[in-house]
Every structure is written in C-alpha cells, then in structure tokens.
C-alpha cells in the first residue's frame, strides 16, 4: 500500500541443491517496485553470496508480560514488528545441564512438522524460577542457581548462563527467521505480492536467480510457492516455511561436528564461501575439502575451549545450512593484548547461523561442562551407541560385485590360503534377480542356502544389499503388496511416486509410515525371504534416497509421505527410517535373541542406537591419497556426533588403488571402528593377495593386529553403549586444556590408551607425531621405547609400520596367537599390556560377553574386569556390581612397560588359592617386564606382586 516491497533473493552456491526458502534472504526495502526490474543479476549474485550464511536482521521483540512459568518450563510470545508475526518461545531446562529452545508460530494455519522418533528420552525438566526481572529483561534460573537464561526484551536475545558467565547466546545477532505457513485456499484474496520470474542461471548447477520482477495477484502459480530447478518444478503445499537462528559461543574459537562432510575436523569460517550443508545425497566420488552435503546428516555442533565443551543440537530434518564465523581470530586476540590504550584485549567468540527449509526451531543447548558429560547428554537424548556383535568388528570383504557362488567360495578360500583372518563377505546388487531385492539371481546364486552353510561351517557371515527402491513389476509379489497396501511415497497429485534407480523404473517405500516399517521388517523373516538364514545380514544402500532422474539425484521435495507431510520436511530422516526398519526385521527374525548387523549409507541423529546395527560408512570415496587423508577427520566428526561405528571403504571405492596406497589404507582402517574393503566393478580385483608377497604380508600384518586388538575395541564399544563416549576420539577430547591439540585431525586416540598417527602420504619415510601432555609418558607399541609428552617427535616408518603409542597409566588387553575369524580368536588366551605412568600407576578394563546375543542386556550375562597397577602390585577385580558371565577366557601373560629396574621373582595370588611363583623376563633396554605362563581366569580376582 505504500509502494514499498520486501525483496527476497534466492541464492544457490555452486554445485548445491535447488534453493529452499530457508536460504532466501531479505536484501533490502525499496520505494519503487520498478527499480527491481533494473537490478542486474550479477549484482544480486554478489550481494547475496556475501550475506547468504548470515541471514536477515529481523529485530524480534520478547513480550515479557506474556511470560508463563509451568511445571516443565516457561513460555512467552515473540513479535516481529514489521510483519506483526507472533511466535511462541518455549523453554525447558534439565539439572544435568541442557536447555531446550522451541520457537513455533503462535497461531499456525496448520501444525508444522516436528521431527519424531529421534529423541528417545528427554532429561527430566527442572522448575524454572524468576531470579531477576526488569523492564528490559528477565532471568530464569534452575539447579540452585547453577544455570540460568536471561531473556532480553528488545532486540530479543536469550543468554544461557553458567553461574555468572554467559556461555551461549541465542539470537545474538538478531537473525531469528520464521516464515509462517499460508493457507493456499485463501491465497487469491491476499494482498498483491512480488513475483520474481526465473530468468537466468549463472554457472553450471547454480540455482536460478530471480531476475525479472513484477507485481501479480496472489495465486499459487507464481511467487515462492513454486520453484523451478534444472527443469524440476517444486510446489510448496503451504508456501515457503523456512526457519533460522544464530548462536554466539562466547570465548570459543573451535567448533566441530555437523557431519557428514569431506572436510577438516574443525569447521572452517564460512563468511567468504559456502555454508555447511546438511542434505543427504548420493554423491559419487565426492570432492574433498568441501562443505557439500553427503550421505548423512547429524545437526549437532560442538564448541570447545580449555575449560568447557558445549553443543547445539538443531532438531530439524529438512535441508539445512550452517554458517560459521570466528571473530576475532586467535591471532587478533594476541595482537590486541599487546596494544596498549586501545580498549584492552578482544574476547574470542564464534557465531553459528542455522537455516532450515521447513519445520520449527527445536534445539537443545548442551552445557557439558566437559566432552564426556556432553557425549552422555547427547546419547541420553538420541540414544547410546548400540553394542555390535563381535564379528562385526572384524574385517569385511566386499566388491561391486562378486560374480557368483564359485567366486564367493574362491575368495573365502583365498583368505585361509594366505593366512589372513576375516569374518564377513558381501554381495552387491548383482546377486539379485534383476535388481529385485529379497531375491537371488537364479543363474549366479542358485543355491544361496548351501552358500551360507558353507560360510557358517567356517564361522563366517554373508551380507547382502537391500535398497529402498522397488522395481515396478506387477508380477512381483513384493511390489504388489507394497502398492496395494499403500506403502509407497506419493507425488503431489496423489499418485505413486516413481523414479529411476538400479531397478529401472521404481517406486520408493515410505519408511516414515510405521505400518510400512512393520511390513518391511516382516519381509526379512526366514519364511518370507527365501534363501536366507540366520547368518545373513544386511547392507542398506541408496537410501538418501537416491533417485537417478530426480533433482540432485534424490526425491522431489513435494512428494508426499504418511500423514500428508511433504518430503522436504523429513528428507534427512529417510535413510534413518529404513535403517530402523531393517534392524527391527533382523531382531524379529531371531525372536529377539541375537544382535543384528546392518550397515547404512544414509543416517541422521540417533542412527547410532539401532540395536547392534548402528553402523555407517563414508560412501563412494576414491582410490586417492587425498581421500585416505580426509577419512580421518570425517570419522572423527562422525564420532563426535554420536555415530561411533563408522568407517570408509578400504582402498577407495572408485578407481584402482596402487599397492602403497592400499597398504597404507589397510593400516589406517585396521585402527578405525568399521573395517571393510570395497571397490567398484570397473576397478581391478583387490583381494589382499593380488599385489605380491610384500604387499600381502603388510596387509596380513595389519589385519592380524586388528584382530589381536579386538578385546580392547569391544571394551570401548561397551563404554560407548553405556556412557556415549566414542571409541575414536580427537586428541582434544583426552587433552581438553591443551590448545595445541584442538585443530589436530591427522592423528587420534583409540579410547584413552592408544594414540595413532596413520601414514597418509606416499613415499613417506618419517612422520611427525604430537605426543600431548607435558606430564605424560608414551610408549611406542612396536619397540616399547618411552617418550615424554608435551612435544612433537620424528619417527622413521617403513611400509610395514604405522606409529601407534600406548599412553602411560593405561592397560590394554589383546588376544594372543592366530585365528581365521573372531570365533576362533575368542578361544585364544589374552595378553595384558600395562603402561606405567610417570608415577608408576596404571588402570584399564576388559569387557566380555558371548559376543552375539542380547543376553548381556536381558540376563546381565557379561563380565567387566578392572586392572589396577599401583605400588608394584597389579590387581584384577570386578569392574561392575552387575553382570555375571562365567567364561573360559584366560590371561596368559602380562607385560609391564616402564619398569625402572629388574625385580626379583613376581608372585601371583589368586583368590582362594595359595601364592605361587611365576616365570618372567626383563628387557633392560626398553625397561619391560613380561610375566608368562600365568593361565589366570579373566573372570576371577587375582593380583601379581612385583618384589
């Protein structure tokens, strides 16, 4: 009515997705609509690209007189003055240190999508109390005043307090953004609005920028209700509905998380480039050092400083962008401290901007204070890492594809012939009958039951692939059932959605529907899945979902799911739900007795909890040194975000791997959680024995060392299962106050005891290894040589070696001897390596159960043993009041690293038995004492006294 117009420009960075309104930014206000018609496209592109991740400044106002305190929190109204849009802010807090912030429309035309099934348990809410109140702000406190939130009236912002310190501020820069839903039936009666017609694309793959603008009547055929991207039309059922908010982390200059991206561990400043994108996509042979979205999304961001770790969990499953801005840099802080008379030192802070296409703002601020507490808070919220069956921690052999049953048997025999242990062999899509999942190719795999029994006799397993696209074939019972029972996603016109994938023309199961998930789970029953046995497990692929002829090779955003929800609302949940349904199918198949194993390419927050099945991998990587190198920060980022059972295709999926690269990849992957070799069918065969004896020997050694270390890995997964602490950890998790570790992502910790620095460059003869902790001591695992911490050391390496150090003060258990798979290794005795600290002490644990069933949970059939070395005495005792597992596992030898002098004969005291002397050896050069021939039951209490 005044002749002014709000100008919204939709910007899409290079190689990104079709724009969603969450990336649309308010650029300016103009007095003359005709001016817009003369705006140059290049100007818009430059202007928006520099402001894209920052968002508009809306200057909301908190109506403090609407504050209501309830039993489980507080709520008050927010108002955006220009648009008169009323929002409802809801706050709740927990004693353990978390704050939930929810922003929704006060009076929406329909309910907005809220992510279900991800949060498994909300921490008990504390009663909020008004601690201070003024005209401009109100302070609410809980937990006896240890925590608080201060709500400022105008401009609205919410400060989260730990004691008197402001740790995190919500809406610190006034970037709160919330597009209200609109009623399509009333759109024609609405006031005229700006219609910007798509006109020109800039650069390959860029989003169409709106360049030609005019006023039109408010029908649904123009405006932002309809968008076109690369020929695909996206119609929004209730108009644009994006949301966004910004957070300031005070005193923090290092932030991590929001996987999955092929990028550094520490998130980079995005102000001069693209933000991090969370949008699950099939990204074959992805680029490294990219912020593009990959196969999975976990919207959890962590910030760390020496005295505190905090996190923000942004619970939204639509396309999401995360912008990061460090201000000032650490260098600027140092410089400001040296300048006098200029206002003093500048404080570190990091601003993070979140923007999502749809849904509501529902976020949890996790306050730690340390990383261990934060991991526990997040795991309690979304679920603890499932405890995998022991075989799943062994080595897996895969290829796209093994040709037939004879090929599988030949590969299986090859491992035994070359003395290389492995546990699982995998079959890709070619094992099926014309890409119909739950079937077998009658020519290539005519006797699947006999094949599985052949592997079972060797105590090995078979994994087969199962994708979400179902071949359109009315003659196939599975397609007919899914169609007739309404289990497929629909298009916006109500027809069954169809797209192209490996099966050709396909329909896609709607896993968001619990009835569809239940039906799908039953398909894994032995009576339904012909040719399957209890030793058959599942690989879920292409579940982003991948649609070859769809926008960005995925499903249309206006496709419709159960409950009438558009695909845009829950896109990042799709793979999560298929993973869930598959896991439930395998558990049902065993009658709830045996732990399943399911590997999924797509994932979301909470995927880690799927009973013993929460495994993911980094997708279709390449056989290159860059991809090997980026694997380490990728897996560390996943681990920080709760996805602990993770790995990458050994050797790289795409292209041929040169022998040196292959060896180095095996050495690195053997020291990472999920360990699988995999390659595309166009690559040369890559079984470990095909590259000459030297390469075979190096790979054999790496895999055998992995198997020997499995008792330690299994113990770490037990701790992840009960505490949320990931087995794979960045150095800063263990050395929280040492800033030299905060950006290190070429080495890592396995648990708290082992430090690993994989060799990820060709032709390397020496590596630099940071050994943290000025008061720490470290022992080279191969030579037992001791090093002081707090420095970087140069280590020579050969093709046979990779630097691994055991931390002083730790205890690590290993299997002794050799076997062909985990079932055989379980029968072997254990060796215990005690690495003494500078004070001569050490501590560690060993977890044991049957390795396959849920008895550890249902009947407490497990055994947790604790080893403690102090004052020359090593004690083995119970590490848990719960649990009873009478196993035959014995400890055969104990090695103590860091013994200053050769002792006299050690004695062993076993509970209820007389003392006995034992044989021992002492190597003065590396100050190592080894006590042999112990034959001590791991489940009994005993002690070794060193005289």
From TrEMBL:
<dbReference type="InterPro" id="IPR017853">
    <property type="entry name" value="GH"/>
</dbReference>
<dbReference type="GO" id="GO:0030246">
    <property type="term" value="F:carbohydrate binding"/>
</dbReference>
<dbReference type="Pfam" id="PF01055">
    <property type="entry name" value="Glyco_hydro_31_2nd"/>
</dbReference>
<feature type="domain" description="Glycoside hydrolase family 31 N-terminal">
    <location>
        <begin position="89"/>
        <end position="322"/>
    </location>
</feature>
<comment type="similarity">
    <text>Belongs to the glycosyl hydrolase 31 family.</text>
</comment>
<dbReference type="InterPro" id="IPR000322">
    <property type="entry name" value="Glyco_hydro_31_TIM"/>
</dbReference>
<dbReference type="Pfam" id="PF13802">
    <property type="entry name" value="Gal_mutarotas_2"/>
</dbReference>
<dbReference type="GO" id="GO:0004558">
    <property type="term" value="F:alpha-1,4-glucosidase activity"/>
</dbReference>
<feature type="domain" description="Glycosyl hydrolase family 31 C-terminal">
    <location>
        <begin position="724"/>
        <end position="812"/>
    </location>
</feature>
<keyword id="KW-0326">Glycosidase</keyword>
<dbReference type="GO" id="GO:0005975">
    <property type="term" value="P:carbohydrate metabolic process"/>
</dbReference>
<dbReference type="InterPro" id="IPR013780">
    <property type="entry name" value="Glyco_hydro_b"/>
</dbReference>
<protein>
    <submittedName>
        <fullName>Glucosidase alpha, neutral C</fullName>
    </submittedName>
</protein>
<keyword id="KW-0378">Hydrolase</keyword>
<dbReference type="InterPro" id="IPR011013">
    <property type="entry name" value="Gal_mutarotase_sf_dom"/>
</dbReference>
<dbReference type="Pfam" id="PF21365">
    <property type="entry name" value="Glyco_hydro_31_3rd"/>
</dbReference>
<dbReference type="InterPro" id="IPR030458">
    <property type="entry name" value="Glyco_hydro_31_AS"/>
</dbReference>
<dbReference type="InterPro" id="IPR025887">
    <property type="entry name" value="Glyco_hydro_31_N_dom"/>
</dbReference>
<feature type="domain" description="Glycoside hydrolase family 31 TIM barrel">
    <location>
        <begin position="386"/>
        <end position="716"/>
    </location>
</feature>
<dbReference type="GO" id="GO:0006491">
    <property type="term" value="P:N-glycan processing"/>
</dbReference>
<dbReference type="InterPro" id="IPR048395">
    <property type="entry name" value="Glyco_hydro_31_C"/>
</dbReference>
